[in-house]
Design a protein that fits this description.
The protein is an alpha+beta fold. It is built from 3 helices and 5 strands.
Length: 209
């Protein structure tokens, strides 16, 4: 009798586990498409903030190339990611680079940085961070307009030595009580401009060979 009871309980538990697994799988199938579409819309919104619709006529989400290992390292990325391209009438107008500043006050700061073909910044947005609310989180456009100060900047505007926060002798504002966070972002934006410049130089050399 005891053996039968144990067997019956085991069968019940197995049936319950199978039903639960089927329910979870069904829920995932029903919601996965909507989740992916939500992610796509969020990514598209971020890209459009950097390169608005009147500046391009291609699908920036699908017009991409995957970062090489060297580019991944130069941008501070932990894995290969897509670099998006903005085009107008078939001509490239900007590249949008993913980049990570590893030296934020509370860790990594994930960014996307748009660089125009003339080497100037099209725009910068913070995608994810863990900075202190009310202090370091002012890098987020939802909290302040600080991140907008990069638009139009280049490696010549300001000169290289002034690509720092004001506390370090540069031109970029820091936040009251929080210097580490903006310093990390400024450094990463500058480094991304340098990466872009190097890429364009190498490409020009290949074209001339």
């Amino acid at each position: 009798m005891l053996g039968r009871a144990i067997s019956a309980n085991a069968l019940i538990l197995s049936a319950f586990a199978l039903c639960t697994a089927a329910l979870l799988a069904g829920t995932w199938l029903l919601t996965s498409d909507r989740i992916e579409e939500s992610k796509r819309r969020a990514a598209e919104k971020a890209l459009l903030e950097i390169v608005p619709a009147d500046r391009h006529d291609n699908d920036m989400l699908s017009d991409v190339f995957v970062s090489s290992e060297a580019l991944q390292k130069a941008l501070g990325l932990k894995q290969a990611e897509d670099i998006h391209i903005a085009r107008k009438n078939g001509q490239i107008v900007a590249y949008i680079y993913p980049a990570t500043a590893p030296d934020g006050y509370s860790g990594d700061i994930d960014l996307i940085i748009g660089v125009n073909t003339d080497g100037s910044v099209a725009g910068v947005r913070v995608l994810a961070h863990k900075e202190t609310p009310g202090l370091g989180d002012k890098i987020d456009l939802k909290k302040s307009n600080w991140i907008l100060n990069f638009a139009g900047r280049s490696l010549n505007n300001p000169e290289a030595e002034y690509w720092q926060v004001k506390k370090d002798g540069g031109v970029f504002d820091q936040f009251t009580g929080a210097t580490i966070t903006p310093r990390a972002v400024v450094n990463r934006v500058k480094e991304t401009l340098e990466v872009h410049q190097q890429r364009m130089s190498e490409q020009a050399q290949k074209d001339n060979e």
